Amino acid sequence: DAGVIQSPRHEVTEMGQEVTLRCKPISGHDYLFWYRQTMMRGLELLIYFNNNVPIDDSGMPEDRFSAKMPNASFSTLKIQPSEPRDSAVYFCASSFRPTGIGVGGETQYFGPGTRLLVL
Amino acid sequence: EDQVTQSPEALRLQEGESSSLNCSYTVSGLRGLFWYRQDPGKGPEFLFTLYSAGEEKEKERLKATLTKKESFLHITAPKPEDSATYLCAVSPGGGNKLTFGTGTQLKVEL
To answer: How much of chain A exceeds pLDDT 70, in percent?
Structure first.
């Protein structure tokens, strides 16, 4: 299995521009998670999907952020307009089952991340 | 609010010098505690899941333990390839989320 695939790996853009990050989860995984990692705040959950439906977006910082999952093999995280404080590494993760149920299959597998720099 | 605190922030060991990393947590109804390893420029890599106090799991030179308030990651006779950032995360009851600590950056020198 190729694991979770993210693109692009690096993105440099100017303030005000639209940024789209892409993720392909592991085949057969029903849960998809978007995280943001910064030095100051560590890894933070932004939003997660179950069977392509957004379940909890309480971590999305503001309306400039949006996420979609049009099918089981593709998700996007969009920032419009981007700001310098959005600079971070964005990770996508997927799992077969819900986290914390204790019956296996719940491990979240992370992609390599997209390093975003907004100038 | 769920909280995870890891200590120390950074740790430098000599090869073969055993030590422990700490993860203290406050969570409503712990459903699971997870340890991940993260290498520079890469995504977190899963190591262990612990579900209840008293549980222990081992993998090579790593051993994770869990109490009602904290978890330890014991590293026995570490090697340079064990150098990485170790992340702890908790899954609270009633949710399908992971709350992460900020990690311990471990460096093992020859």
So the answer is: 94
